[in-house]
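Design job #97: recover the sequence.
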């Protein structure tokens, strides 16, 4: 591995970032400030932080800085469909799925895995470039919970890919930054992993409705109700309606209490 040296301004920037991560409270504002500084230090068009959940095929947290703007995704923005093209090609894209395959902290980039031509021909390139062209993406990943990873992402939309300097900087800074990231997000509750429609179906299940009744109440087909329940079971890691209600903290309501009142004579 070639030796990498930092100049005076870079060394000062690294020191400032380490000190900021140590003293700042762990919240989204602090993460935004760190992303701003990292974007300038690494040299990229976009910097982002995601809480990535592979088994559930979704993000639980996403914030990014680009062109001077800060964006924090809403719960509605995070609810990607199960058949999202990103997930279709996820396991076939080596840099995307590497954190799941090795389950250890990792710093890697697209340019380490593919040549420029190979990346342009990869289906994931079209998926990631839907909003803006992606010449290269550099990622820092740490395990958050089983199946979940905290991911720092840096994207270049033009120019050359990331090199040894950028990987060295993030390897150096990674442990210090991750303390801040780990404190800025919490493991999501089971119910938050469901889409609005899945929660709606589950609420009707809680009322004791059969699938046919749910379909009529929501104006959807019986097959669609079954699909929603199947996806709900997968996301909650359960196998039955009762287990799903319990996992989502929607236990079935208790039957009304009855009392026998003796008539007065």
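Job complete. Output follows.
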């Amino acid at each position: 591995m070639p030796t990498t040296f930092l100049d005076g301004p870079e060394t000062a920037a690294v020191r400032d970032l380490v000190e900021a991560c140590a003293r700042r409270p762990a919240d989204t504002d602090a993460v935004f400030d760190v992303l701003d500084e990292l974007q300038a230090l690494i040299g990229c068009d976009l910097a982002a932080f995601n809480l990535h959940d592979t088994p559930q095929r979704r993000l639980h947290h996403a914030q990014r800085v680009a062109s001077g703007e800060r964006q924090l995704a809403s719960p509605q923005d995070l609810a990607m469909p199960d058949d999202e093209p990103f997930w279709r090609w996820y396991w076939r894209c080596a840099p995307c799925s590497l954190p799941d395959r090795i389950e250890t902290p990792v710093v890697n980039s697209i340019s380490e895995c593919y040549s420029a031509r190979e990346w342009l021909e990869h289906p994931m390139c079209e998926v990631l470039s839907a909003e803006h062209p992606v010449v290269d993406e550099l990622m820092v990943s740490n395990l958050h919970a089983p199946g979940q990873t905290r991911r720092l992402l840096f994207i270049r939309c033009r120019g050359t890919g990331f090199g040894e300097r950028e990987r060295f900087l993030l390897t150096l800074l990674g442990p210090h930054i991750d303390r801040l990231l780990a404190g800025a997000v919490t493991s999501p509750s089971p119910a938050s992993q469901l889409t609005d429609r899945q929660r709606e179906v589950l609420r009707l299940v809680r009322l004791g409705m059969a699938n046919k009744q749910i379909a009529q109440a929501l104006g959807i087909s019986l097959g669609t109700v079954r699909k929603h329940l199947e996806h709900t079971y997968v996301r909650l890691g359960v196998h039955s309606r009762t287990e799903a209600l319990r996992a989502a903290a929607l236990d079935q309501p208790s039957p009304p209490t009855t009392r026998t009142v003796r008539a007065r004579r």
